[in-house]
Amino acid sequence: MSADSNSGNKSFWPVKTALKEKIIVLYDALLSGDQPWLDNGHYWDDFFLLKVNSKYLLEELERTYIDKPAVLKPQLNTVFDQCLIFVNSTHRIRQLNAYYTICVLIYAISRVNQRTGFGYPALDFLCGSEGVDNKFETLIESVNHTFLIDESFSGSTLLKNAAFDVILTCCTTMLNINENMLMDYMMANVNLFDSITQLLIRFPASHGYDVCLLLALLLQYHKYDTSNTYIIRFSVFDDEVALTSLAQVIGSSLNEYNKAYDIERTANESSSWWNSLTTFNYVQSMINNRRILRLKNNEHLPVIILAITIIFIIHFCNKHDERTANQYMMEDDEKGNPRLCPLYPSTLQGNGLLDMSSNMEWADIEQRIKYVQIGGIYSPSDCIPRQHLAIIIPFRNREYQLKILLRHLHPFLQRQKRSYRIFVVEQFGNGTFNKGLIMNIAFNHASKISAPVFNCFMFHDVDLIPENDYNVYECDKHGPRHLAPAVDELRYFLMYNDLIGGALAVTKHQFMKANGWSNLYWGWGFEDDDMNHRLRHAGYRVSRPPNSVGRYKMIRHEKQVPAFNRYEILSRWLRYSSDGIQQLSTLDYSIISIETHALYTHILVNFTRLATKTIDHLLEELPNVK
């Protein structure tokens, strides 16, 4: 036994030396333009079995790129394709080396393209112009899969480190993260958010520092008018276990930083945090699994920690606000009827990216929207509708907004399997706008329709587009439901608990009990605050979906002329029993036309400032009420 053991020890080092030399031999053959894999069926198995010599490979890639770019390009394309195969290998060493090879390839190409940036030419040189989107999608999905490997598997920690190396290398190919084309692939694959946050659930959170760094990078990215999907996902993140772990990581990071800060400052390092991310020393330190120590001791770490901490605090403040603002997801209390449309059907998609372009013609929109009957009517054919919804949209001089809204709203409601009809009510002429009055007129008309009888009425602003179809457009039997608590212009937060503007769903009984909208707000503003007082005085508490679901994007527009006496009118809201839907018959207005279009029913009404003369006296007779 002893002799065999000694014999084994004598042969170990020569073999290891040979292996070191063999990987360089394979690199040289590859970079010379040869195709040794054609004659050797095990070439790639051997290639990825050997430890990556990152320094040698990087230097040779840069040299060959300058001397023989035409030779290098097809070779790199082949290596990259093979890396994508082996990162999904069941052989852990080959999988690990495939990840490390990708790191070196991406970093090498980014170095030689520093002036021109990491754009299409660099991508073409790296992996070929054909199927580049699919290749990076495959790479990121492989990383996601690696992140979710069970910790009990041998080598899982090293593999996850390597996967983080790949993503961090992709994120730091350019100093300006907004000019990094590879970030587009990160934004397109939101599964990456799920996988990295899942790492936080597994105690101990050994990859917590990597998650913090990666989140900080992803949350910084902004391009044109495109929403950052990671900001959206993180702002609605509600996994308490993962968030608790994130808090522990942040606390640990701050503690480590406090210990090392003075030492690091006196060392007077010349490299900044961004430079450390984009130098070969950083790439090499990642491959040697020393990146965590380097980042913890870096003077720019507080910037990362602060960014994550602020988002973290805002998140929990948001959760507290949701409880005080009566925000909850509606529950399906009629599951016993299998023929009834489910409250949350399987066709829902959650948050979606919205197309806010306004240059489409009506004919193009009508051709795109399917299954809608004339007048903007739709009802699901595969189940019994839960409610019949009348959507009332007050409108004036905003045709481009109406196009965008209807282009999104019809598919949105069809995925929810709602039965609905869309009414667009427009005030004729250029007189002072009275939103409350035209909404009362539209309600009065819709409530008289008998086929079907509407049992839910939605008052919907034309400039708000719903983002999440889990925000079901349905009335709540417990009380009025405000569906738009989180608007992008308001940073996706409910500004105050009495806010009900944007999208409000009420039953006929709820609406009539509050006597509908006030007819006395001439000009923009406060008619919704007035309605809130009415609903509360009628004994209702308005409910809302959570901010994570009740998300809306506002179409930009010029501000309207505000009601000059809106504060005075609001202070006299107790007049509501004498100013509302029940007084409509006493007002001087006329319906010019009711026309059915392909996607909506158009109600055109006409009145002047004298329309409400029979109730104007109410503003003088009642005392102010705060």
Automatic annotation (TrEMBL):
Pathway as given in its UniProt record: Protein modification; protein glycosylation
Domain Galactosyltransferase C-terminal: 481-558
Keyword Transferase: yes
UniProt keyword Methyltransferase, yes or no: no
GO cellular component, one term: membrane
Membrane-topology descriptor: Single-pass type II membrane protein
InterPro entries, A to Z: Galactosyl_T, Galactosyl_T_C, Galactosyl_T_N, Nucleotide-diphossugar_trans
Protein name in the entry: Uncharacterized protein
Lineage of producing organism: Eukaryota, Metazoa, Spiralia, Gnathifera, Rotifera
